[in-house]
Design brief:
This protein is α+β, with helices and mostly antiparallel strands. Helices cover 18% and strands 20% of the residues. The termini are far apart.
């Protein structure tokens, strides 16, 4: 797959109307998907959180548990930056900052992975 072959209109499609989503919960990315890259998850056609959904879920997590998600690992979002790098989501405790940063699409760090979603 070349970067120019990515179909942004059909990848990770969401309902056009209002929808709800849920994930397994937890402070870090899904245990069963740890170490999986953006490319791994996208090719398996797993629905995983996009950056907006990540911001909503980590905000709710902070409200409910009084701590941010992803202080150890990083959540791989389902969207790509305009340069086709993956979007990585995490919190740096030392800086007290929530990040939507860039990552390599084939990164398989053992603490990183997606958060699979259930849409309704």
């Amino acid at each position: 797959n070349s970067f120019t072959e990515i179909d942004r209109k059909t990848k990770q499609r969401r309902p056009k109307d209002t929808y709800v989503f849920a994930h397994r919960g937890g402070d870090e990315p899904d245990v069963e998907h740890l170490g999986k890259s953006y490319n791994d998850v996208a090719s398996a056609k797993i629905v995983f959180a996009n950056p907006l959904e990540y911001l909503l879920m980590t905000g709710f997590h902070m409200w409910k548990h009084k701590k941010w998600m992803d202080q150890k690992g990083r959540t791989c979002a389902s969207s790509l930056w305009t340069d086709f790098c993956s979007v990585c989501c995490f919190f740096r405790h030392e800086e007290k900052m929530l990040y939507l940063s860039f990552g390599e699409r084939d990164d398989r760090h053992p603490d990183n992975g997606p958060r699979e979603l259930f849409l309704g």
